[in-house]
Amino acid sequence: MRTSFIFWIIRKALRYPLLSFTVVVINFLIPRAMPGDPLIFVFGEEVYAIALSNPDLTNSLRSKYGLDLPIIDQFWIYLRNLISGDLGYSFSYGRPIADIIRERLPLTLIMTVPPMILSLVIGTILGTNLSWKPGSLKRIITALCMIVRSVPTYWSGMLLLLIFSLWAKWTPIGGAPPAGAPLSEFISHLALPALVLTMYNLSYVTIIVRGLTVEISGEPFITTGLSKGLNWFKFSSRYLIRPSLPPLVSLAAMEVGFAFSGALLVEIVFSWPGMGYTMWQAVTERDYPLLQATFTITALIVIFANALADILSYALDPRAR
Amino acid sequence: MMGKLNRAEALGISLILAISIMTVLSLLPEEYFGRSSAAYSPPSPENLLGTDDLGDDVLRSLLRGSRVSLSIGILGSVFSTLIGGLIGVFSGFMGGALDDLLSSLIDLFMILPALPLMIVLAAYLGPSLLNVIIVIGLLWWPATARLVRARARQIRESPFIEGLICLGAGKLYIILRHVLPNVWGIILARFVLSVPGAILLESGLSFIGLGDPRSPSWGMMLHFAMTRGSLLRGAWWTFVPPGLCITVTSLGFILLGMGLEQRYKLSTKSVEGLL
Amino acid sequence: MTSGELEESEIGSQMLSEILLEGRDIEKRFRSFKRSFLAVRGASISIGSGEIVALVGESGSGKTTLAKILAGLLEPTSGEVFFMKKPISRMSKQELLNFRRKVQYIPQCPDLALDPMWYLYDSIAEPLRIHRIVNSRKEEFKIVLSTSSRFGLSLDHLRRKPRDLSGGELQRAVLARAMVLDPELLIADEPTSMLDPSTQAKIVDQLIEVQKERGLAVLFITHDLELAEAVSDRVYVMFSGMIVESGGTSEVFSSPMHPYTRSLLDSDPAPPEAVVNEAPCPFYSQCNISIDICRKSPPPEFGLGKRTVRCWAIERHRD
Prior knowledge:
- Chain B: This is ABC transporter permease.
- The structure holds 3 protein chains of 3 kinds.
- Chain A is mainly α.
- Chain A has helices at 3-33, 39-43, 45-52, 55-64, 71-84, 97-132, 136-150, 153-167, 183-217, 220-227, 232-269, 275-285, 288-316; strands at residues 89-90, 95-96.
- Chain A has a two-stranded antiparallel sheet with strand order 1-2.
- In chain A, strand 1 (89-90) and strand 2 form a beta hairpin.
- Chain A is globular and about 85 Å long.
- The mean pLDDT of chain A is 75.
- Chain B has helices at residues 7-26, 58-94, 96-111, 114-125, 129-157, 159-167, 171-208, 218-227, 240-264.
- Chain B has a single domain (7-19, 41-274), classed as MetI-like fold.
- Helix content of chain B is 71%, strand content 0%.
- The interface between A and B is large, with 54 and 50 residues.
């Protein structure tokens, strides 16, 4: 085998683990690189202020957390903890962070995954449809997509909250139902945020799918086939969707990234206690360990999703061999 | 240089102009726009957009906020376009190991979720205007870099570059005097298209509470509406206007950017690059 | 007989007073992921000052690759290019700059040879600026204008950008730009194949005039045999990356030795195709005088007076 080929495979295979490692390292370095006592970043500002009044306590805490060790040792401890699942302790919540995340991550997933799936399905249909229907409908939808993309997601969330929860009283104002609650409650709580996220994702997917299929749709054999009354559904899935699958998969991966960014703010608006909401609380309370941990987990999940998508699109695309 | 404006550009510019008028108006002395009065009062002849939870006139805050949001948006975009453009040009034109390294860097930053990373950085750096601009610049450049890199590569393959090497031109010379002018169109379009992203990012950050409290932007107004109970009180006038302004501004820049792309005949695939 | 180094004493004409540019055993292999392509194999070529040398071959024969290697635009996989007896891969920055000034390359397609964003005037003046030859705008203007008008370009042309000019005008601009530095050697890669016949003739005429005026050496690359015969003093024939024959133009054209050259010159309706494989002799599959050894080892260059051939069969017959 050519050496360049081997290098290329190595690069691809190493990419994601390397990325993940970089994220972990960055997260480790940032608080220690900031001016000031790193202790404040381990404890959060409140506890730090308290600890300051007692120098002995501060010193013993320092050595307990290994902050007087050389950086490399600190890093190993950090890494070991991370792998074994010890994400530190949140002072604002008073609980181990790992527990908090274990509770909240599923909630974020509940809120982000359905809109992702919905937007991919609807978007693909809309996009392929748009690629061969001429004229004004296309322009309207394109315009709509642009507008949706200019609107801040959390603002539309606020608007919807105002109209449907406050005024019409159709949906609850916020929060999440407890674990055992019936499905209908989940739906009523999720309806508005899911709507916002779906719309947002939809605007991306539609345009990209249209871009992907527009070339194929222009072909003469398409237009003649359609005029002869070809079954649109069967046809589009074979000629339009199948070849577009690989980029669609990468698109889905991108969406995961967006999900965590966009959903973050939406969670705040609807007081939905997921990862985003937690991050926000961490920022407000200056609970740095919690902030760091949620960020690390979020980043790792996004990287993982991208890696998965990369592998999938490889498997689906014979050309890439 | 201008020539006739196409439809997208025209629309975009008119929207931007509208917002700019707001900014200009904000420079007028404060007495012109409503006074403080009772908190949470709905729009009235005295306070055209009502008052917020502190009793401040919403319209006045809106106008002041326009200055902040716009300047952060534009400066952040300048910063990120500069970084993205430089990296893209060098990566695309030089090729080789440098390209590999920079491309990996670009990919890394593209995958990382922008908002959470920004939150972490902003939280550590502290809330200030400058920090927000820095954070936007540091995280928004990959999209630009990717497009610029593609174009730089295209140019590198162009025969006239060969001719220049033949004449004895050095690489840096070629980059400065031949690649940059040919890449200029993309950079300009990307700059314009990055502004809405920057504005949205800034408002997102402010919404979380990481904006600069001394210079309240539109995002901050939304933050206050959320956290100080205006939303729950149904005081829609406190948050609908700022959100609307953000939307209109973003739309304006997007339209302008798309118009610029049409003018320079860049591929419309950059719609994806709107990330 | 030794391999084909042209011995100066044999040439005797005052034109070949020194060898300007020489490529020895140039090989170029292009590698990509799963494939590798041998574009040039074991080619040796030289151009002396003041002479017009033609490099002929069909498209795909590797002539452009060889030309670019000689011009210093591509690095050979093996072999060396010498300018004034110095290998260019080992030149200092100063020497390299000098090389770039004395040896100019004109690409095949004039359309993309100039920066589309630059005005023609600036493109033509550029070499002067790069090499810092002139000290004032006035001087520069004089030189640019005189060189351009030499090639039939007026001030009006100079004010425009490449997209506003015709193919012929662009080719002339490229020529002007190359000549503005008063080089000693011009490598012209199919300078006329992209133009219509009447413009072709004009360009060739101008080239010849300038060559005579300034004693310029020219490496003229073309697939047009008539053209090569008409203008050149010596000719190299290239097939599938290998230089199969070389010598004085009139000799080679009147009595070609190599079977490929023969079939080229016969008004053969089907000229042999370039072969993409790495057989020792690329012509083997189409050759009618091949012998056993042709299959096994690449034919070395055999010199016969001022001519060289690369063919086993000929060598055997000669003995």
